[in-house]
Amino acid sequence: MATASEFTPKLWVKGDLNAFFGFGTNILVNVLTITGLLHFVLQLPDGIVFGRILPATGLMLFLSTFYYAWLAWRLAKQTGRTDVAALPSGTSVPHMFVVIFVIMLPILLKTKDPTRAWEAGLTWVFVQSFVLMIGGFIGPAVRRITPRAALLGSLAGISITFISLRPAAQMFQTPDIGLVCFALILASWFGGVRYFKGIPGGLVAILVGAVIAWGSTLLGFGFGGMTVKGVTDSFSNFGFSIPFPAIGHVFHGFEYLAVILVTAIPFGIYDLVEAMDNVESAAAAGDSFPTTRVLTADGVISLIGCLMGNPFILAVYIGHPGWKAMGGRIGYSAATGIMIILLTWLGIVPVILALVPVIAILPILLYIGMLIGSQAFQETPKSHAPAIVLALIPQIAAWGKTQIDGALGAAGTDAATLGMAKLAGTGVLYSGLASLGGGATLAGIILGSIAVCVVERQLERGALFSLAGAVFTFFGLIHSEAIGIGQSPFVASSYLGIAIVLYACAKLATIEPKAAEDSHGHSKMETAAAE
After folding, report:
1. Mind listing the pLDDT tens digit for each residue in 178-198?
2. Which are the contacts of 93, defined by CB distance < 8 A and separation ≥ 6?
């Protein structure tokens, strides 16, 4: 038997094909979404979208997927294991919307200059990249002291809200395609169904969705949104484009630095925390990657993409256990990088956007959300389940607030104009949602950590997490929409109150010992009753 030092991991295994179609289509959905936002919302010229931004985005994704494939190969080589799966990575989905709607669109509306809007987006990523690189050196320590239930619970909140709910809603808007494709994916990836000649379930779903969409077009229903004119028009952007430096554009965007810092720093911290969550998720699935390498790599590769013209931040994705469960190992990540660089450099993205209905791809995101949401409960002790629920609540609040903001914006108003009292009178507790959902990822981790400490009878440690919550709140990192001194003072003082209560209980109260649990996280009493 070969030792770990003699072992050479395989770069491609059979399961990589299935994971490639799943992960590759996930990345493709995001690239198509980016293209739609740039082209239809910002209405940027084709020269910027297809000649500058997409080629730079493709380069960034190529570098990240190859780096994480190498990191997986290295771990497999060191351990002698054949089941190591690469971390999935790509453009951060929440940040795609933030940089478009919070940074680029307001500047475009103000200046009427698409180039300046693009430059502001580049500067936003530039600042975030350094937040990630610096955070990479403190991330491991944070991960060591933070309970797994808190990390995975906050991640579950993201998966249920921002990852799952939108695709689910879109699927039910076009159920003829969305639900059929979802059934095909569930049958394959959860039910073990093998399709004809082993064709991957993700590819089957996309092909069936395209057939239904184009069939409806031919029959005159058109619920897939496919048109022949859309396909012919898409070929106008077909051609070879490679990225080239945009350093001057990056520094031109510094004129908007004051606006950029308001969101770049807190969202950089959000990326830092989310990456730690996802590294923890991979560790729970059996693959322990070095946190510092992951966080600094995200920052460095984002910086390279930014300097070449890409205004979107890189992030390690949730979903590692899902791609691993499909059989993905090392090759699926590298293959995705090759695919995406070809699509973006050859101008094929607009052609795909015209041929394949996005609704056929969205069920894959819902599948990943289901898997990650369930992992938080499966990979932690049963007694920590209440802490997981508490950790995901801030994400639900943040998602609810975005829905209200979107609805009010469509009506030409906002919450401040309408009035908090009027909203509260109709049962919409907007100010509460805004406070609870501010800095949702970090807030979920703090609340979940406090709850785990209470469950484990570690009340003094819980008091320390409460003090951390008070500090974070005071400076606007959580329970606030802006960084600053004295943000949300009443919430900050409430965290201090929690710290006092827990510390006093630890020193003065009589505490019943926690019931012992078996290896599955069940209490010994529950196990005995079941037997």
Report:
1. 999 999 989 988 888 888 777
2. 30, 162, 163
